[in-house]
Write a structure and sequence with these properties.
With 293 residues, the protein is mainly alpha-helical. Helices cover 76% and strands 0% of the residues. It is flat and about 75 Å long.
Length: 293
């Protein structure tokens, strides 16, 4: 009994630094943000408790549109990253000449600082001297310069393309490592039994990749949902709010309008939204994994 207690005490001592780190870096700021969301904190020296007023102000038609826009933006961006990243990982794992070079060439979007890459895409989207507009006009697909960032629909999809370009290398490298960890004996046994390439992918590669895909999807979803710099540098949330997501709206409210209490309420909503989504997402993944097994 004494040995068991000593082992438990020793385990808690090992966990103590991590617990202190979590409580200091995550717990205290989160609690402080929740407390701030129930106040009218701003540049005024006095702070008053307003209860649920900030949360009641959030739920209006405008913020409902922002939530839908954020979901669509995140869904398409993460979905394309996972799809392209999975295909890229399988191709980079194939035995082809120059495979190492192709792996190196995958990295620049990830290595280049995000603001630099986004500024480069902003030049590409420019209608007067951007390469994309010039190519479309040269191919006869457009009759004149196209200002991608000046219209709501094109600006929205332009930000998605930029985010996918930045995020695909990380997804590809992560899934490539997962593909390489799959035992080759499984493929050899399946090949000996006459299994085709698609069958091996469906019955071996995909089930073995599913945990890695689930993990990367969750991480990518959190990063993408909270992505600020890409949209802010390209469009600033415009035109006419057509690229304003929840994180952009939170920034405009808290920093742009100096409504810290209202901005904190929006930050809490983002945290709750992501927590609920991740919970149901992991439940779905576990269900699919059990059915596959």
């Amino acid at each position: 009994m004494t040995g068991t207690r000593s082992a438990i005490t020793f385990a808690w001592l090992l966990l103590l630094p991590a617990l202190i780190y979590i409580l200091t870096i995550v717990g205290y700021p989160l609690i402080d943000t929740i407390n701030l969301s129930f106040t009218d904190a701003s540049l005024r020296p006095t702070v008053n408790f307003v209860g649920w007023e900030n949360y009641q102000d959030i739920f209006n038609a405008e913020f409902g549109g922002i939530i839908v826009r954020t979901i669509v933006w995140t869904t398409f961006s993460v979905g394309l990253k996972i799809l392209i990243g999975t295909c890229g990982a399988l191709l980079l794992n194939a035995a082809i000449p120059g495979r190492t070079l192709f792996r190196i060439l995958t990295m620049p979007p990830w290595i280049i600082p995000i603001p630099i890459g986004v500024f480069a895409w902003g030049w590409l989207y420019n209608g007067q001297f951007g390469m994309i507009s010039a190519m479309l006009e040269g191919l006869g697909l457009t009759s004149g310069p196209t200002e991608f960032l000046a219209y709501g629909n094109t600006a929205f999809w332009s930000t998605i393309v930029t985010d996918v370009w930045i995020g695909v290398p990380m997804v590809t490298m992560y899934l490539l490592a997962a593909v390489q960890s799959i035992p080759k004996d499984l493929y050899e046994a399946a090949w000996t039994d006459g299994a085709g390439r698609f069958y091996r992918f469906r019955r071996i590669t995909l089930p073995m990749l599913l945990p890695a895909i689930a993990t990367m999807s969750t991480l990518s979803l959190i990063f993408t949902f909270n992505s600020f710099d890409i949209i802010w540098i390209l469009t600033g949330g415009g035109p006419r709010g057509q690229t304003t997501t929840m994180i952009i709206d939170t920034y405009k409210t808290a920093i742009g309008s100096y409504k810290y209490g209202a901005g904190a309420a929006r930050a809490v909503m983002i945290c709750l939204f992501l927590s609920v989504f991740c919970y149901f997402y992991f439940r779905l993944i576990n269900k699919v994994s059990r059915q596959g097994a």
